[in-house]
């Protein structure tokens, strides 16, 4: 695939999936091994989501063979429960490292353009979509009528990400890349335009890797502290309302809350464990709200548009469709509406 520059800087995402249907239930997840049992598709379908969002590691490829990667995507498409979900529910997504092509990889992965083409095929992205031309799989999608709009912004944390170096001398896996970047300048400019021009009441930003949790030793935005602060600054100065971050990657679930990043609490809901989770053990996170969850699970956000103010119910649900995390957030400055 030959990727070229995106559209004019003045043009907002032309492929924004704009539907007048009101979104009330958004399900999401990550870390899905196509070769393992996948028991969560029936519970996900039973939750009756209006939208499913892949947050990365949608397959485990870890290869430079595009023929092998293509066959892995095809295997995932044949999974009966997922096939049924595709027929019933709108599906969006971004990638992380294992479906990008290599563990913890960034811009140096040599097959990123070919891998991008296969990812977009998996997501049923049309041939005329700007993602077929741009460098990276980031995208924006707006749903709902005026007054009840949700904007889903999915970032690409792989294609442009600078290198990180292993740290053998501390309890961290990598040295921080203090001047390094994650998104690349074109994606940063695009993100700011999408937020600044948005009329949506709620903004869900999928980042694949965690943005709020900063103490654990693995991949995270905090490995790039300048980029992490820039993310918070962009969200803050655009004045975007109702921002909630969605992340995956960590093979567990948790809810993190940052009280200093914005004028209102910034939540990061991590759902990572559709087919496998990390073994039990401590993981520091001073921003964590509630418990760390290490069972197979998916995330679910339920919006109560009639509440005053509007509320978001942030859940992590297990195989029994019962909540393992259940936290309700009131969105500041958003009043409920009786509009249809």
Describe this structure in words.
The chain is 20% helix and 22% strand. It has 340 residues and is of the alpha/beta class. Strand 8 (253-258) and strand 9 form a beta hairpin. The longest helix has 14 residues, at 225-238. It is globular, with a radius of gyration of 19 Å. 43% of the residues are buried. Residues 1-10 and 336-340 have low confidence and may be disordered.
Domains, number: 1
What name does CATH use for the topology? Purple Acid Phosphatase, chain A, domain 2
The biggest beta sheet reads:
7 strands, mixed
Order of helices and strands: EHEHHEHHEEHEHEEEEEEE
CATH class: Alpha Beta
Strand content: 15-25%
CATH homology group: Alkaline phosphatase D (PhoD)
Q: Give the neighbour order of strands across the main sheet.
A: 4-5-6-7-9-8-10
What's the short story on this structure?
This protein has 7 helices and 13 strands.
Question: Topology, please?
Answer:
Layout (H helix, E strand, L loop, with lengths): L24 E5 L11 H6 L4 E4 L11 H12 L2 H9 L1 E4 L3 H4 L11 H11 L16 E5 L6 E5 L30 H12 L5 E7 L16 H14 L4 E5 L5 E6 L7 E6 L16 E6 L4 E7 L6 E7 L5 E8 L10
Helix pairs in contact: 2-5
